[in-house]
Amino acid sequence: MAERKTRVAILFGGRSAEHDVSRASAANVLRSLDPDRYDVTAVGITRDGRWIVARVGNGIGTGGSALTIPDDGPRLVLLPGGQGRTLVLDGDAAGVRELPAFDVVFPVLHGPNGEDGTVQGALELSDVAYVGSRVMGSAAAMDKDVAKRLMRDAGLPIVPYVAMSAAAPLSYDDAVAAVGSPEVFVKPANMGSSVGVSRARTAAEFDACCRLAFRFDSKILVERCIAPIREVECSVLEHADGAVRASQLGEIVPSDKHGFYSYDAKYLDAEGALLQVPANVPSPVADRIRELAITTFRVLGCEGMARIDFFLHGEQAFVNEANTLPGFTNISMYPRLWEASGLPQSALMDVLIGHALERHRRSRSLTFQRE
Ligand SMILES: Nc1ncnc2c1ncn2[C@@H]1O[C@H](COP(=O)(O)OP(=O)(O)O)[C@@H](O)[C@H]1O
Ligand SMILES: [Mg+2]
Questions:
Q1: What is the CATH number of domain 6-130?
Q2: How far apart are CA 2 and CA 11, in angstroms?
């Protein structure tokens, strides 16, 4: 008898500034899941947080360039302890039905309310396998202040920074003294896609930058500005047997008109940045960066996958951040780096799902009881 297909739920959209990026990532993930092996349901999370069955079934060529969420589609509810079982609400109580259990959930969500451990917590409670980092690794990587403290503790090279809360703001002079440079970057602690990130060279600019960053988070970071800077990225992947591997490096070259790798350069301007794969970096430096990427992955408690981003200043590398649910669009760095390293996207999906299923199987053998 043929083995039945693995039932996969893709979660996409979400309550985040990166909602639309997620819709594009999800279309690409759907396209690269082998229809002979996987039976896929796409579940869209609306901007106000409702889970809606957006698409049932998959096949090569499906999905378009971004998945859409039908606003009036049937709502989906995860059952706590349900081992992948879900209820679909068709509008009224008479319309409640149960779907066949999902074997694995693939959260293709970026930023807060998806990449930060919240959705991972819901998936833990529902006792279903899911792709990528669990609660702790997701949350630690998302909070730039917590991530940098863990990295510093492990001796990883990070850019000098200071964190501040709205309740205890620092003056420009204090911040400059703390990071050792009059030119600084200000950013929200929990965000992504360069939302709320800006550069200050004067006290007046600093105040404006802080106001902007505080719109997105109650904790912000002030960092020494690194210049000149090159930005290189490395994809890290964990296999079902626990082996953690690092890809070739890619380089991001933002166009001069944006000044840095801003939201506009990332998403709005088609010529906003050039992605160079592989990065033109001397091989001893590249090898060191790959090693740093794997160490960062472990130090932050990441699992499954992460894209680790670096700043390069001459030959000095700084770890900037870890993205536990990196972009997955057809031009995104994470899958591109694996393609360049000899792992095509559909094989990458198999590794990610294989890891999720094996981890879930192993966690079942742990006990919550003392006896
Ligand atoms: N300390 C810094 N020095 C120079 N450029 C920086 C610095 N911090 C951030 N940037 C620029 O801002 C971009 C976004 O900052 P980042 O910390 O990566 O936040 P996000 O999580 O939003 O991507 C970076 O890709 C880089 O171009
Ligand atoms: Mg970044």
A1: 3.40.50.20
A2: 28
The structural architecture, per CATH, of the domain 160-224 is 2-Layer Sandwich (3.30)
**CATH architecture for residues 228-362:** 2-Layer Sandwich (3.30)
Smallest CA separation from ligand 1 atom 15, residue: 194
Instruction: List pLDDT tens digits, range 160-205.
Output: 999 999 999 999 999 999 999 999 999 999 988 888 999 999 999 9
Q: Which residue has the tokens 């409702």?
A: 50
Rounded Cα gap, residues 289 and 248, in angstroms? 10
> What's the Rg (C-alpha) of the chain?
21
Instruction: Delimit the CATH 3.40.50.20 region(s) of the chain.
Output: 6-130
Does the pTM of the predicted model rise above 0.90?
yes
Cα 229 to ligand 1 centre (Å)? 10
pLDDT at 3: 81
Give every strand in the sheet of 244-254, ordered side by side.
273-276, 244-254, 230-238, 305-313, 316-323
Pocket residue to mutate for ligand 1, from 16, 116, 185, most atoms within 8 A of Cβ: 185
Confidence of residue 72 (pLDDT cuts 50, 70, 90): confident
